[in-house]
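user: can you give me the structure for this one chain? tokens are fine.
assistant: on it. calling the predictor now.
[tool input]
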Amino acid sequence: MTSKRLCFVSADGERFATLEASEEALIADLLEAVLVELHPSESVVEDAAVNYAFRWRGQLLPPQRTVRELALPDDELITVEPQFRNQALERAQTTAPDSVRDRDAALPAPISETSALPATAGVSGLVSRSGSDWTSMPFEDELMSPELQRRIEAAIHEHNIQENLAAALEHNVESFTYITPLYVRVRVTADSARNAQPVLALVDSGAQCTVMSQACAERSGLSRLIDRRFRGTAIGLGRAEFIGRVHMALMELDGEWYECSFAIVEQLNTDMLLGLDTLRKHGMCIDLRENVLRERDRAVPFLSDREIAEARGLDSAPARNETDVNVQRLVAMGFDEASARSALAAANGNLGLAASLLMRPGIEAP
């Protein structure tokens, strides 16, 4: 059985709901389900079809028709409107002068089944001389105006983002935490092992070739081997200019020597990217479960954050920088900086837990 994804908005434009509806569902049944979503703490479901109605593209949806019969498309925006026809209209008809009642007697009988009619209006003001103009009230024109529709669309968009964020904080909290890059220690030389220089290499299977910075090539004695005929541009998340290529050099990893080629770039935020060409050539495998780089029966552990900082000659500043980064991530989510820092302190630096604390209504981070 097929279904449609429909979006609903209250008449005041402040409440939204999205439901998957079977094509065989009656509008009356769907109305009850939507009211539960829009008013979870209110008793509005009783006599839902009497007190509320759906309006789509300016027309009321008959409660006894199905989604299929009305040909409602996916992701269509439908307004949920209260029915104001009952007691106020009856009082107006009862208390109106005879001349007014006589004049209005010619109006179509289904007037009591129309929707969204202002309860404060008199009978004559409720309907125009032509019964077909009931849906042309100023309130309807205002509701269907392009500006209001844009605001409703923006609100639905923001609501969907917040729901997605809340779901991620509950089921995918790891995505908010800092991920340690896959670094290993290697040594590189042009020809002789005694001249090999230590290099911090980032294992990156997304890099098509193994890349080295120009500064690292100079330290390792490879600059004299750069073939500048192999210039080019690498385009990925950014752009990098290759100034040339070292066709073959030696790389030592955990006591084993390997022949490698290097693309040399002017600027690189790390010394070296151990790319897919080298990984494939030597049958290296990234084992994330064990957090090691495997080559045949050998396993080289990836470096921890502390080891990476030591290899770069850094002090404890990265820990403070990580806190600052997490604060900025929380600020980007819409929280103020002071609350973000307090929540991170309460969560012992755990970004996901801090965001969860800040998302709880009525709870402020200590």
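assistant: here you go. The longest strand covers residues 239-253. Residues 317-359 form one domain.
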